[in-house]
Design goal:
The protein has 334 residues and is of the alpha/beta class. It contains nine helices and seven strands; from the N terminus they run αβββββββαααααααα. Among the domains are: 33 residues; 96 residues; 34 residues; 53 residues, no CATH class.
């Protein structure tokens, strides 16, 4: 039976298409006949995972994504089929998560558990939705963004207040303040020049004062022995004073003062001769009359001595009138 050329071309075309499909699936890690070890993972967010993306466990690639399909029309759950290269002892409590890579394709990372029971082909892995690198960065930057917004709002409020405060009058006042600051700066400059002249080693006032201080201290050093001797004498004097019975002396002085007060009290009264003499007027008058009579008697004795002494051989007795008042010289002596 002779086969026509059209039949040959159609058969070759079918074989080529079949080989193309098989080769494409082989490059994607899929085979026409579903053989091998498969695990399933369910995610609410596939994060761009695609068929043939790698699957890792402890950093080692143990398989790849074989298929991705949605569980229902609402796309709430995405079922990812994982084909393992070989059979691996994966604990039943292991967790699979999708790691997004902004510079490459995402991958699935299986965190191995510690269960003694292992997953078999066709079992489902526990899953967890990682935030991913971008989401982590976004979560870290979100508080900063909110803080920046708050800061910008505060800055806007501050600028508004500054614009409100800095009216033309305030600006003029600020200009005057700046002008006054310039004047103050000039004054400070002049003051610094004056201070510099004072600090001059040759003719400055401070240098002269220091020289005077040095001279004074030198004099103190030269007279150190004299000062020490003077201080020793002062210490000796204070020691002698401290040993003196000052309290006893004060007590004796108080006693003497009390005795003197007693005597003065008696003098002020009419008790005793001195008190009578000081306070009795009649005694004073009597003493005055006695002194006057004594003066008259003495003057009369001087004037008429023959009246009192009669020792004359040829003379005669003086019969003149006696004195009744003292002479002027006696009276002046009174």
């Amino acid at each position: 039976m002779k086969i026509s050329n059209e039949t040959k071309v159609g058969a070759l075309t079918a074989i080529a298409i079949t080989l193309l499909i098989l080769g494409f699936n082989f490059l994607k890690g899929r085979s026409v006949f579903k053989t091998g070890n498969f695990l399933y993972a369910k995610y609410s967010d596939a994060k761009g995972i695609m068929v043939s993306n790698p699957v890792y466990a402890n950093g080692y690639q143990i398989g790849s994504v074989y298929d991705i399909e949605n569980e229902d029309e609402n796309l709430k759950n995405i079922i990812v089929t994982i084909k393992l290269k070989s059979y691996y002892n994966i604990p039943a409590n292991s967790v699979a998560s999708i790691n997004g890579n902004p510079l490459g394709s995402p991958s699935i990372e299986i965190a191995l558990g510690n269960d003694t029971k292992f997953l078999q082909s066709g079992d489902s892995l526990k899953t967890i939705n990682n935030a991913g690198l971008l989401n982590d960065v976004k979560a870290a930057l979100l508080p900063v963004t909110e803080q920046l917004k708050h800061t910008m709002h505060s800055l806007d409020t501050v600028l508004l207040n500054i614009n409100t405060i800095f009216d033309p009058n305030t600006k003029n006042n600020l200009q005057q303040v700046i002008a006054n600051l310039n004047k103050t700066t000039v004054s400070l400059t002049a003051s610094s020049v004056s201070i510099q002249s004072m600090l001059d080693k040759q003719s400055g006032s401070i240098a002269q004062s220091m020289n005077n201080v040095n001279s004074f201290t030198k004099n103190l050093a030269d007279n150190n022995d004299k000062i020490t001797h003077t201080l020793d004498n002062l210490q000796t004097t204070t020691n002698n004073l401290s040993k003196t019975d000052i309290q006893g002396s004060v007590a004796e002085l108080k006693k003497s003062v009390q005795t003197l007060n007693t005597i003065l009290d008696k003098v002020n009264t009419n008790n005793g001769s001195l008190g009578l003499l000081m306070n009795d007027r009649s005694l004073y008058n009597n003493l005055t009359n006695t002194v006057r009579s004594a003066n008259i008697l003495i003057d009369d004795l001087k004037t008429h001595p023959k009246r009192y002494v009669n020792i004359s051989v040829f003379g005669k007795k003086d019969k003149s009138t006696p004195l009744t008042a003292p002479l002027n010289d006696s009276a002046n002596k009174k």
